[in-house]
Design brief:
18% of the residues lie in helices and 32% in strands. The protein folds into five domains: 71 residues, Roll (Membrane-bound Lytic Murein Transglycosylase D, Chain A); 54 residues, LysM domain (Membrane-bound Lytic Murein Transglycosylase D, Chain A), CATH 3.10.350; 46 residues; 88 residues, Sandwich (Immunoglobulin-like), CATH 2.60.40.1930; 169 residues, Glucose Permease (Domain IIA) (Distorted Sandwich). With 463 residues, it is of the alpha+beta class. It starts with a helix and ends with a helix.
Length: 463
């Protein structure tokens, strides 16, 4: 019995040993490990490699990372202390970041290895030392001087120390002209390159991800209108309330990961020239989708001469963004039949009939028998019911704001074009029509002209 206990104790010690090795051992700045970190993610954040981190810390590549322990980060010669990161928001520039954190622009460039200062992207991790991050003011206000008003008079009016005021161009100048904007710490507005009439501009998620919905929200402090473009494609903005404008845009699942320009233009009112325009890149990440091969589908359903015109017709059908938002809250599942597991999920790269891996799955497939009821996941208007070669018997519903849902391979339609439906209403029956090898329900959601993962719309409320 004693021998068995001793063996068990040794096994526990051997299992836990790798975790002890994760600790800083060489000179250089350190990083405190956070929950969910991996050596790969840490290396990506700080622009180094896993091998370099392993060598700098005397650890192994498979060492267990314990949150709260520290790693030495190689490649930052002359830098000491603890490294941390802040997320660059849309509208921020190198100049505004320098003012916010009290760090010279050249130091930010050196610390972050910035090669193109004008191409900082929204969602980018800005590397700082812990002291710089902690010393920054929570917010910074922009203040526009009145005609003939000097720095001292402005400081009295705003109730701040005149020596805490500075300009973008010259920290030492005492008098300013009315067109100059000054900044004062501890104000109620964040400093960035957006005009004061834009209270905030937020992106979710940031960075964006292939196959998911990007929410662009612009909050104004006065009446006005906003237009936007992402990689040249027009964004559709709608009023969520009196001062908040929202655009929902699907990121196509085949979008190449990388940087894409997001342009925002502010108009005093519709029909006038823009009062302000700002362009900043946003990053699109890989969605991490799997691969699969499906054989035995009808040959005509993978014939480009047949399916390409069908795809063009559907894209044109789902392009408009109607102004009435008809849903409220998360969408519901379109089937009550065996929803514990899905036959196939969104985004999976596909090969059909042993052909090239040039397709992807545009929706979610539910296990279901022929005749099982299909339910509307949210209120909307039926805009199409019909038979197509690839989709089979298909129904499309417009939910407003450029959001549509589709239901493929049906055996029977139970709604008509032009009909308004409510959440949970039976709209059709499951079948095995079109590009299908057995009875099932294919369900998809389009946002801003691109298919997105429908399960996102189940998991959370948009916008």
């Amino acid at each position: 019995m004693k021998q068995i206990k001793l063996i068990s104790l040794l096994l526990v010690v051997v299992f836990l040993a790798p975790a002890v090795a994760v600790r800083a051992q060489s000179q250089g700045p350190t990083y405190v490990i956070q929950e969910g970190d991996t050596l790969t993610s840490i290396a990506g954040t700080f622009g180094t490699t896993v091998d370099a981190i392993v060598a700098a810390n005397g650890i192994e590549e498979n060492s267990i990372l314990i949150p709260g322990s520290s790693l030495t980060i190689p490649g930052f010669e002359g830098v000491q202390g603890e490294l941390t990161t802040q997320t660059i928001e849309f509208g921020e520039t190198l100049e505004s970041l320098s003012l916010r954190y009290g760090v010279a622009e050249e130091d930010l460039i050196r610390l972050n290895r910035i090669l193109r200062p004008g191409r900082l992207y929204a969602g980018q991790a800005l590397i700082l030392t812990q002291s710089e991050s902690n010393s920054s003011p929570a917010t910074i206000s922009r203040i526009l001087p009145k005609d003939g008003e000097g720095k001292l008079a402005l400081a009295v009016r705003e109730g701040v120390n005149p020596w805490s005021l500075n300009t973008f161009e010259d920290d030492e100048r005492l008098w300013v002209i009315p067109s100059e904007i000054l900044v004062a710490p501890d104000g109620d507005r964040s400093i960035n390159s957006l005009p004061d009439s834009i209270v905030s501009a937020t992106l979710h998620p940031s960075p964006a991800v292939q196959g998911h919905t990007l929410v662009v929200r612009i909050d104004l402090d006065q009446s006005g209108w906003v237009e936007g473009r992402l990689d040249g494609k027009k964004l559709n903005f709608f009023s969520e309330n009196e001062r908040s404008l929202v655009s929902l845009q699907g990121i196509h699942a085949l979008t190449e990961p990388g940087l894409y320009d997001l342009e925002i233009s502010l108009y005093p009112s519709l029909g006038e020239e823009p009062a302000f325009s700002f362009v900043q890149p946003i990053r699109v990440l890989d969605g991490g989708y799997a691969f699969e091969t499906i054989n035995g589908v009808p040959a005509e359903t993978v014939d480009p001469a047949v399916i390409n015109p069908e795809q063009e017709m559907v894209e044109e059908l789902l392009a408009p963004a109607t102004p009435d938002r008809m849903w409220d809250g998360p969408f519901q599942l379109p089937s009550n039949y065996y929803t514990e597991k899905f036959l196939s999920v969104f985004g999976t790269r596909r090969s059909y009939n042993w052909g090239a891996l040039e397709y992807y799955h545009t929706g979610v497939d539910f296990y279901a028998k022929t005749g099982v009821e299909i339910l509307a996941p949210a209120p909307g208007k039926v805009i199409f019911t019909g038979s197509l070669t690839m989709r089979g018997n298909v129904t499309y519903i417009d939910h407003g704001w450029g959001v549509y849902s589709g239901y493929f391979h049906q055996s029977e339609f139970l709604v008509s074009e032009g009909e308004y439906v409510e959440t949970g209403q039976v709209i059709g029956l499951v079948g095995n029509t079109g590009r299908s090898t057995g009875a099932h329900l294919h369900w998809e959601i389009w946002v801003g002209g691109a298919p997105v993962d429908p399960l996102d719309w189940i998991a959370r409320e948009y916008p």
